[in-house]
Design a protein that fits this description.
The chain is an alpha/beta fold. It has eight helices and six strands, in the order E-H-E-H-E-H-E-H-E-H-E-H-H-H. A six-stranded parallel β-sheet has the order 3-2-1-4-5-6, with helices on both faces. Helix 1 packs parallel to helix 2. It starts with a strand and ends with a helix.
Length: 175
């Protein structure tokens, strides 16, 4: 199984480091992959935590030109914050476990979680590491639930929003 960690371009709360520490006890067969964005400022903390881990963590930099969508598609579960990623993984059919970066994301994710495509844990700075680790383990061990989350995501977000928006703009431009 593969668990992908991605907390946006800058990860202001350092949730990548927190999540990495919380997931250290996952079974060895779970591959941990973390994506860091161009404005990620917790590199030293991440390296220190990574070297103390009893398991490997594959680190992927967005700047390396890696195809994040491919990683999202390959992942069995994505651990992310409550930004655009939740819509991207829904469209790809990948279930998500979400930690909010701030109060705005918190409110949005409480509502979004009702669609059943993600499990929302709360503000990332407040969720205990043990709770995060347990939630990830529970979801990774429940293929049926992940399958249901995947189907709900694909039904909710078809990825054609930009095309529909362009049609509206073009229709209004003609009238």
């Amino acid at each position: 199984a593969m668990l992908l960690l991605t907390f946006g371009g800058s990860d202001p709360q350092g949730l990548t480091v927190r999540a990495e520490q919380a997931l250290a006890g996952l079974p060895a067969e779970v591959e941990l992959v973390a994506v860091t964005g161009p404005a990620f400022s917790h590199g030293e903390e991440l390296q220190a935590a990574r070297s103390a881990l009893p398991r490997p963590l594959r680190l992927v930099s967005e700047a390396s030109g890696a195809h994040i969508a491919d990683l999202m598609l390959e992942a069995d579960l994505v651990l992310c914050s409550g930004g655009m990623t939740v819509y991207e993984i829904a469209a790809l059919g990948t279930p998500g476990l979400v930690l909010a970066q701030n109060a705005r994301e918190d409110a949005r994710m409480r509502a979004f979680a009702r669609h059943g495509t993600i499990e929302y844990l709360g503000l990332g700075s407040e969720v205990p590491e043990a709770e995060l680790g347990a939630a990830a383990l529970r979801l990774l061990g429940d293929a049926a639930r992940r399958g249901e989350m995947s189907a709900r995501g694909r039904a909710l977000v078809d990825g054609l929003g930009a095309a529909r928006a362009a049609e509206v703009v073009l229709a209004n431009a003609r009238s």
